[in-house]
Design goal:
The structure holds two protein chains of two kinds.
Chain A lengths: L1 E4 L5 H25 L4 H13 L2 H26 L7 H16 L7 H30 L3 H21 L33 H19 L1 H11 L1 H7 L3 H28 L10 H11 L4 H25 L4 H22 E4 L2
Antiparallel strand pairs in A: 1-2
Chain B lengths: L6 E12 L2 E12 L3 E5 L6 H8 L7 E6 L2 E2 L5 H6 L2 E4 L11 H6 L12 H14 L15 H14 L4 E5 L7 H16 L3 E6 L2 H7 L2 E6 L2 E7 L5 H9 L16 E9 L12 E6 L2 E6 L6 H9 L6 E6 L2 E2 L5 H6 L2 E4 L3 H5 L6 H5 L10 E2 L2 E2 L1 H14 L16 H13 L5 E5 L7 H16 L3 E6 L2 H7 L2 E6 L2 E2 L3 E2 L5 H8 L8 H4 L1
Parallel strand pairs in B: 3-8, 3-9, 6-7, 7-8, 13-20, 13-21, 16-19, 19-20
Antiparallel strand pairs in B: 1-2, 1-4, 4-5, 9-10, 11-12, 11-14, 14-15, 17-18, 21-22, 21-23
Classes of the chains: A mainly alpha, B alpha/beta.
C-alpha cells in the first residue's frame, strides 16, 4: 500500500474525511464515557447542550475561545513561515504581565488612553520575548522548537517569582496573585449585562487582519514563500532571515494579546493559573484550521466548545473532565489523518 | 549476436497512463545475455517510468516483465532485485559517511554482527575491482570520493550482489570524456562475463560506441529500434526527435564592451566541492560565454556569485566599470541580471505557489506589482498571463500551482519572468536540463535572440555539446580554476575534455595551493 497525491481533489474528497474524523471522535468519546459509567448515547447531547445549549453556555464558549483565537493565530502565522513557535504560553504570560504592570494603578492614565497603551505595550513585549529565539535561530541556527519550548518554563517561573515577590497583592491573603486592575484598564463588555468582553471582538478583528496581511501584503507573500521554499525565496531575493524575524514579532505579539485579553477582559488580575495551556492548545487550533487565519476562529470555537461542553457534561453525567482532553487529542489525530486523506489516495498494489 | 542468444530480460508491450498522460504506450524492450541495449530518448520520453515499472515502483496498466523466462509479479519492488537486476541511478544512492566497503556490503552483511565476513567481503571487493578495472579504496569514506569514483562504487555494489542484468541511467552525465572511456572498458569486461546491460542515455555517440542494439522512445511511444551496426547517429537523431525543429542557426557574434566582470574572485570550498580560485571572467555585450566542466568543479560557486547569492571572499565583481560594493540576489535582480537557476524545481520556483505568485517572485517589491507593502494582484495576474501567452506556457490557467506543470513549461515561465524586462546580463545555469527537444530549441533560440539584441550571456552546462553549439567563447572550469578563453571552433571536444579533466592548469598551481 502506498499514497498517491491527488492534484485536483473533488469537493467530496475535501469534505468527507474531516466529517468522518468528527464522527469517529464522537464515537470514541461515547465509548470512553460508557467505560466511565455514563450512558454513551447521552454524552454528545450533554456536551452540545453544555457548549451551545443556552445563552450562558454560548457566551462561556465564546469567552473560552477568545484566548485560543489569539494563540491559534500566533501559531498559524509562525507555522506558515515554518517558524515553529511552541512558546505561545510564555508570550501569553508576557502580555498578561504587561497588562498588570501598566493597569494596576501606579500610572495615572485616563481611561481613554490606558487600554490602547496596554495593548501596544503587550504586543511589543510579547514580540520581544519571541525575538530572542528568532535571533538565535537566524544568527546561530539554534532550533526554535527547543528555545521557545524551554522559554515557557523560564517565563512561568519568572512570573511565579514576581507573584511571590514584588507583584504580590498585599490584600491577597497570601495567595500568589497580583493586585486587581483599575476599572479604566478593564476591557468593557460587548453588550452590557452579558458576560462577553471586547477581547473577543479584538480576536475576530485580528483574525481578519492576519488574513488580509497573508493574502494581500508583500509581507504575507514573503512569509508564505519562506515557509514553502526557503531556497527559492532566498534565490529570488527575499531576505529570509528578516522575514523570519518579522514573522516571530507578529506571532509573539498575537500570543501576548491572549494574555492581555484574559487579564483585562475576564480575570482582572494575574495568577499562575491564568492559562490552562492556551499556548499549547493554540497549536491544536492552528493545525485544525490548516493554518488559515479565518478557520482559526472556527477551530477555536470547536475546541472551546469541547472544553466547556465536556465540563458541563462531566458534572451532569458524573464522569471525569479528562474526557475533554481525550476528545481533543482524538479529534486532532483523526483530523490530521483526514487532512492527509483529502490530499492523498491510498493505492493498493 | 549469435543465433543461440538467450533472453535475459524482456519488457512486453508495457503501457502506463497517468491520468491524461500516457507515459509508456506499448513499449517493448528485450536484452539477451552478453548484450548491451541502449534505451535512447529525451528526458520525459518515458525511460524512467519504464524502469520504475521494471523495479515495481509502478504497476503497469498492461504488459509483462520477464527475467530469464520468469514473469515478475507486478508492483513488487524486491522481485526484480531478487531476480538479479541491478541499477546504477543517475543520482547515486550512497551513504557519504560510510566507507566504500560498508556501502557495498550494506544490506547484505549480517545485521547482528557487521564485522562478520569483513575480510572475505574485502577480498571479494578487491577481486571484483581488479577483474572489472574498477579502482577504488575500500576503506575510503564515500564523502571524500570524486563523482567518477562514486560511480565505480555503485557499479561494484551491483556486481557484489551478483547481478546478471545491469541498468545504467545516464551514467556518463557526470563523467569527463576520458572517464567515459574507462567506464566503457569496464562495461565490455562485464559483457564478456555474460552480464547484460541496459544503457540509458540521450547521447548518440556514446550509444553508437557501446550498444549492440538501440531502442528509441519518444513521448512514451517506441519511435524505433535498430542494431547499431546497421544505423548511424543521424538516423537515431531523426528517430529521437521526430519531425521537430532542427537546432537554431547561430550567426556570428558582435561582442561589445564588458557588462559584468569577475576580477580574481575567490570563494570558499563547500565540503568536497571546490569554490572559485582567483577566477577572472568578462561577460561582454552581444556574446555568449560558455562554461564547460564536469559537475561539481566550481560551476555552482560561479553561478552563485553572478546571481548575487555568494559574496567573493577575495576579488571583485564589476558592473560596467564600477566595482560592486554590496551584492545580494535582490541587488543582482535590480541591476538587470536575468537569472535562470540550475534547479527550476528547488530554486527557480515555489512548487505550491501558482503561476502568478511565481511570476512575480523576483520583483514583487517593484512598483509594477506592489505599493506601500500591498500587492497588486490584478497587475501581477496580467503580467503572468502575458508571459503564458508570449512564451507559450502550456497550463490550465495562471491560478494553477506550478508543480503541476511539466519541466519545459516551468522553464518557459522562468524565461518569461527574467526576459520580459529586457535584461542586459543573463545567467543561464543548465537551462535545458531535463527538457524535451522542442523546449530545448525554444530556450536556446531565446538565449540567442537575447544575445543578438546585445545582452551578455553566461551559459553554464555539463552538456559539452550544448556549450559548443551555443557559445561564442568557451571557458573550461576544473577544480575551481578557469581555463583561458577559447573561441568558437578553436577546440575539439577531446581537447576540451583534457581541460575538463584538469590538465593544462599547471601554470596556475600557485593559486590553487
Amino acid at each position: 500500500m502506498r499514497l498517491e497525491p491527488i492534484n485536483n481533489p473533488t469537493l467530496a474528497r475535501k469534505l468527507v474525511p474531516p466529517a468522518l474524523a468528527l464522527a469517529s471522535t464522537v464515537v470514541i468519546a461515547s465509548l470512553l464515557a460508557m467505560v466511565a459509567g455514563a450512558n454513551p448515547f447521552s454524552v454528545i447531547g450533554l456536551i452540545l447542550k453544555g457548549a451551545f445549549g443556552s445563552k450562558f453556555a454560548i457566551l462561556e464558549t465564546l469567552n473560552r475561545a477568545t484566548p485560543l483565537i489569539f494563540t491559534g493565530l500566533a501559531v498559524a502565522v509562525a507555522f506558515r513561515a515554518k517558524f515553529w513557535n511552541i512558546g505561545a504560553e510564555a508570550q501569553l504570560y508576557a502580555g498578561a504581565l504587561v497588562t498588570v504592570l501598566l493597569g494596576t494603578g501606579f500610572l495615572p492614565w485616563s481611561s481613554f488612553a490606558i487600554l490602547p497603551l496596554i495593548i501596544v505595550a503587550s504586543i511589543i513585549v510579547g514580540a520581544v520575548v519571541l525575538l530572542v529565539p528568532a535571533l538565535l535561530k537566524t544568527r546561530f541556527g539554534v532550533d526554535e522548537v527547543v528555545t521557545t519550548l524551554l522559554f515557557n518554563f523560564i517565563f512561568l517561573l519568572f512570573i511565579s517569582m514576581l507573584l511571590e515577590g514584588v507583584l504580590k497583592d498585599p490584600m491577597g491573603m497570601g495567595w500568589p496573585k497580583s493586585a486587581r486592575l483599575i476599572p479604566e484598564a478593564r476591557l468593557p463588555r460587548i453588550v452590557e449585562g452579558l458576560r462577553l468582553h471586547w477581547g473577543f471582538g479584538l480576536a475576530i478583528l485580528s483574525a481578519v487582519g492576519i488574513w488580509i496581511i497573508q493574502t494581500r501584503s508583500t509581507l504575507g507573500y514573503e512569509m508564505r514563500a519562506v515557509g514553502l521554499n526557503k531556497e527559492a525565496a532566498a534565490f529570488a531575493g527575499i531576505p529570509v532571515n528578516v522575514v523570519i524575524v518579522k514573522t516571530a514579532l507578529l506571532s509573539g505579539g498575537l500570543a501576548a494579546l491572549a494574555g492581555f485579553s484574559e487579564v483585562a477582559g475576564l480575570k482582572g488580575s494575574l495568577t499562575l493559573d491564568l492559562s490552562p495551556g492556551f499556548g499549547y492548545t493554540g497549536i491544536i487550533v492552528a493545525m485544525l484550521a490548516l493554518l488559515n487565519p479565518l478557520a482559526v476562529v472556527v477551530a477555536a470555537l470547536f475546541v472551546a466548545g469541547i472544553f466547556v461542553g465536556a465540563d458541563s457534561m462531566s458534572r451532569a453525567a458524573d464522569v471525569p473532565t479528562y474526557l475533554a482532553d481525550i476528545m481533543l487529542a482524538t479529534a486532532l489525530l483523526l483530523m490530521v489523518l483526514a487532512i492527509m486523506l483529502t490530499r492523498f489516495r491510498v493505492v493498493r498494489d | 549476436m549469435s543465433d543461440t542468444a538467450v533472453e535475459a530480460l524482456s519488457l512486453n508491450a508495457i503501457t502506463k497512463r497517468f491520468g491524461e498522460l500516457t507515459a509508456n504506450d506499448a513499449v517493448s524492450l528485450s536484452v539477451n545475455v552478453g548484450e548491451v541495449v541502449a534505451l535512447l530518448g529525451e528526458n520525459g520520453a518515458g525511460k524512467t517510468t519504464l524502469m520504475n515499472i521494471l523495479f515495481g515502483q509502478y504497476t503497469a496498466d498492461s504488459g509483462t516483465v520477464r527475467v530469464f523466462g520468469d514473469t515478475l509479479p507486478p508492483g513488487n519492488s524486491r522481485a526484480a532485485l531478487d531476480a538479479g537486476v541491478g541499477m546504477v541511478h543517475q543520482h547515486f544512492t550512497l551513504a557519504d559517511n560510510l566507507t566504500v566497503q560498508e556501502n557495498i556490503t550494506l544490506g547484505v552483511q549480517s545485521l547482528l554482527n557487521p564485522s562478520l565476513g569483513h575480510a572475505a567481503a574485502k577480498a571479494r571487493i578487491a577481486a571484483l575491482s581488479e577483474k572489472f578495472h574498477l579502482a577504488v579504496a575500500p576503506d575510503a569514506r564515500v564523502g571524500t570520493l570524486s563523482v567518477g569514483e562514486r560511480q565505480r562504487v555503485e557499479i561494484l555494489k551491483a556486481l557484489y550482489r551478483d547481478v546478471r542484468i545491469l541498468i545504467l541511467d545516464e551514467p556518463t552525465a557526470v563523467l569527463t570524456p576520458q572517464e567515459t572511456d574507462n567506464l566503457f572498458a569496464t562495461l565490455r569486461l562485464a559483457i564478456a562475463e555474460g552480464l547484460s546491460i541496459i544503457f540509458i542515455s540521450h547521447k548518440l555517440h556514446e550509444v553508437m560506441a557501446i550498444a549492440d542494439r538501440v531502442v528509441v522512445l519518444r513521448h512514451g511511444k517506441m519511435a524505433g529500434a535498430a542494431n547499431t551496426k546497421d544505423t548511424d547517429q543521424n538516423a537515431l537523431a531523426a528517430m529521437m526527435m521526430g519531425s521537430e525543429a532542427s537546432p537554431p542557426e547561430v550567426s556570428p557574434a558582435k561582442p561589445g564592451p564588458p557588462l559584468l566582470a569577475l576580477r580574481d574572485v575567490t570563494t570558499p570550498d563547500v565540503g568536497s566541492v571546490p569554490g572559485l580560485k582567483s577566477v577572472s571572467l568578462a561577460l561582454k555585450a552581444g556574446q555568449i560565454v560558455g562554461l564547460a566542466g564536469v559537475s561539481g568543479n566550481g560551476q555552482t560557486a560561479m553561478a552563485d556569485v553572478v546571481a548575487g547569492l555568494l559574496n567573493p571572499t577575495d576579488g571583485d565583481v564589476e558592473m560596467g566599470h564600477e566595482t560592486v560594493k554590496k551584492w545580494s540576489p535582490r541587488i543582482a535582480v535590480e541591476s538587470g541580471i536575468a537569472r535562470i537557476p540550475e534547479d527550476r524545481h528547488k530554486t527557480g520556483t515555489i512548487a505550491d505557489f501558482d503561476l502568478v505568485e511565481n511570476a512575480i517572485l523576483e520583483r514583487y517589491k517593484s512598483p509594477d506589482f506592489s505599493k506601500g507593502g500591498w500587492l497588486n494582484w490584478r497587475k501581477s495576474r496580467a503580467f503572468a498571463d502575458g508571459i503564458i501567452e508570449k512564451y507559450d506556457v502550456r497550463c490550465p490557467g495562471s491560478s494553477t500551482p506550478i508543480r503541476l506543470l511539466s519541466g519545459g513549461n516551468m522553464q518557459k515561465l522562468i524565461l518569461g519572468r527574467v526576459l520580459e524586462a529586457g535584461p542586459q546580463i543573463i545567467l543561464a545555469n543548465q537551462p535545458v536540463r531535463g527538457l524535451d527537444i522542442g523546449a530545448v530549441h525554444y530556450v536556446h533560440s531565446q538565449l540567442l535572440a537575447a544575445r543578438d539584441r546585445g545582452a551578455a550571456v553566461l551559459l553554464i552546462s555539463e552538456d559539452l555539446d550544448e556549450v559548443m553549439a551555443l557559445s561564442d567563447v568557451i571557458h573550461v572550469i576544473a577544480d575551481g580554476r578557469l581555463s583561458p578563453e577559447f573561441k568558437r571552433g578553436e577546440m575539439t571536444p577531446a581537447q576540451l575534455g583534457l581541460w575538463m579533466a584538469g590538465q593544462g592548469f599547471e601554470s596556475d598551481t600557485a593559486h590553487a595551493s
